[in-house]
Amino acid sequence: MRSLVWFRGKDLRVADHPPLAEAAASGEVIPLFVVDPFFFSPERARSLPHRMQFLLDSLACLASELAGLGSRLLLVSGRSVDVLPRLALQWRVDQVLASRWVEPFGRERDRRIAESLGRSGIPFRCLEGETLLPPGSVRTGQGGMFRVFTPFARACAARLDPSSPLPPLASLPPLPPDLSGPFVPVPSLEALGLRPNPRLQPGGSRAGRARLSVFLQERLGRYSLERDRMDLPSTSRLSADLKFGTLSVRQVWRAVADQGGAGAAPFLNELLWREFSHHLLWEWPELLDRPFRSGFAGFPWREDAASWEAWCEGRTGYPVVDAAARQLRAEGFVHNRARMVAASFLAKHLLLDWRLGEAHYMQWLADGDWASNDAGWQWCAGCGCDAQPWFRIFNPVAQGLKFDPEGGYVKRWVPELAGCPAAFVHEPWTAPRDLRSRLDYPEPRVDHAFARERFRATARAHLGGDGL
Ligand SMILES: Cc1cc2nc3c(=O)[nH]c(=O)nc-3n(C[C@H](O)[C@H](O)[C@H](O)COP(=O)(O)OP(=O)(O)OC[C@H]3O[C@@H](n4cnc5c(N)ncnc54)[C@H](O)[C@@H]3O)c2cc1C
User: Fold this and answer.
1) How many domains is the chain built from?
2) pTM metric for this prediction
3) Which of 253, 308, 354, 370 is catalytic?
4) Is 429 tagged catalytic?
């Protein structure tokens, strides 16, 4: 049996990789990555620089880990819908195995490839591995999809298979000798017109394993107390690893569950939020462009280019919102609490369409992931899957005082406020006049009480009644 294992950006590891394990157990293995010129063009790379950097690191690491097992990652340039069927025939493979994607465009691509391979009699199978449970398999008692997180999480927890990740592979068979290319190397950032960003976390399974180990040793014990603190390194920073599959979610779940302690349950609950968003996207692919609460369709979002630019550049005059904007562009990461405050501010305070923010985050986040990002944005804008009513509105000052009490997060990313005493750092407009004049920081773009009432009145008028 000769298997082609098609790696494609969300499963860049050798451990706990069901397609690779199955292929290895059944005979010859050909690991392949297709370098699609559309995705790997300088123009496209510039539109997602941080994800591209993490991806290239991860591909290089995958190539080296496959070589360490005695195999080799082959890279071929072209569109996957053309390349895959052609190579599968040319290399006389008996099956093509890959990891399943939940995104509608990935599903459509897989349908076309399965059809094309099928015409040559070559089976194409997508195996599970991106989520803990197969998407679509967690349903309500009535057989429908879950629309709210808590009952979903309960149903998931009841069904979770406590089995361990797959055992590590000791070796892989060498590549069959009769394969011809042309093969290409892992593209470099420079060739794509990008300069490496040294502030980004390194990608790849090795770096991911090191991050997981630091989290287990230094942070998990305090996670339940500190995970919302924007100023502390209290969370795992594993989101890009889970997005690119440099670690499997099952590996992370197992490592944390085995270690246990007070932090384990809240952390595993966060993994279930990820699970929820992936299952949601599978069940309702419209998540990527339509509001989940249908009453929000046609919502009268404002057009206000100056406010949009101020939000993107971190000049709204609300320190946590501005810190989030600047951290995003500098590091390709934003703390979850700051993401929530910044996203809510865009939609509810500025009354700008959440889809603008969603696309901006996908451009700059290293962990940019369609399911989690769209679910997160819709939740923050009030139109997503949420048990809370749409009119709950984050107060950016109160959030800052509570989750960044000394202002360390804000001062790190908004250096104009470095000299501001903690008492004023989340509302610098209340500082004495002489201090304010020295801060060189903008006045708030919009008054909080005014913005809250404006959003509520607009939403009430649009949604009618209670809006649901
Ligand atoms: C507006 C908005 C946009 C977001 N966009 C993304 C995105 O593009 N990609 C992404 O991975 N996460 C996204 N999130 C979720 C969350 O902010 C990040 O997963 C988290 O901040 C990553 O940091 P961490 O790995 O240190 O998290 P930890 O606290 O260590 O959590 C562990 C893991 O659980 C998962 N997780 C945690 N919180 C959530 C959540 N609310 N929803 C889904 N999964 C979660 C992530 O995989 C994370 O790595 C978004 C949240 C919001 C509010």
Assistant:
1) 3
2) 0.96
3) 354
4) no
